[in-house]
Amino acid sequence: MSGNGTPQDPWQLNTPPGTSAYTIYRDDNASPPLLVCMVGTTRLTYLARAVDDLAAMLRQHGDWMPLGAADEQKEPKPGTVEAWGRAGDNPVGGWYGQRKGYRGRFGMYLPPLLERLGLVELEHGPRDNRVRARSDA
C-alpha cells in the first residue's frame, strides 16, 4: 500500500479480501472535501470527513463490526459499516457517498484506507470481513 493520498500520488489499496486493487486520494479543492476512489475506470466519491467520522464511530462501538459492503441499490445488513455509512443518524445524516448511483460500497473501500492510516484493524478473509478501532489509535 503506497501513495501519500494526493491526486498525483494516490493511496494504492486492496479490498479486504485482497481480490481487487483501487486507489483513493483526497481532493481538498472540492467543496466539501472529498475522497476520490478509482476502481478501474469507475470513479466513486465519499465525503473526506468519513475517515474521522468512521474512526470515531468504531472507537465508540468498541468491538468488531461487519463491513457489509453493498451497492447503492441494495439494502445493507443492519449493524454493518455499510449501513452506518448511509444511515440517517450518522454525523452527516445520510450518505457519505456523493455520486448518485455510486454511493454504496462504503464498507468495501473506506476500511482499507483507515487501516493504511493506522486507525483500525481489518480482517482480510475471502468474505464476511470485520473492522475495529485500534486500541492504540
Number of domains: 1
Structural class: alpha+beta
| Anisotropy-based shape | globular
Q: State the separation between the terminal residues, measured CA to CA.
A: 19 Å
Q: Identify the strand order in the major beta sheet.
A: 1-2-3-4
- Average pLDDT confidence is 95
| β-strand number | 7
Annotation field: number of helices:
3
Helix percent reads 10-25%
Radius of gyration, whole Å: 14 Å
The low-confidence parts are none
What proportion strand? 15-25%
Order of helices and strands: EEEEHEHHEE
The biggest beta sheet reads:
4 strands, antiparallel
Keywords:
137 residues; alpha+beta; four-stranded antiparallel β-sheet; three-stranded antiparallel β-sheet; 3 helices; 7 strands; 20% helix
What are the SSEs and their pairings?
Blueprint: E1 11-14, E2 21-27, E3 34-39, E4 42-47, H1 50-61, E5 65-66, H2 81-84, H3 106-116, E6 120-122, E7 130-133
Task: Summarize it.
This protein is of the alpha+beta class. The protein has 3 helices and 7 strands.
Word description of this protein:
The chain has helices spanning 50-61, 81-84, 106-116, and strands at 11-14, 21-27, 34-39, 42-47, 65-66, 120-122, 130-133. The strands form 2 sheets. The protein has a 4-stranded antiparallel beta sheet, covered by helices on one side. The protein has a 3-stranded antiparallel beta sheet with strand order 5-7-6. It has one domain. Helices cover 20% and strands 23% of the residues. It is of the alpha+beta class and 137 residues long. The two termini are 19 Å apart.
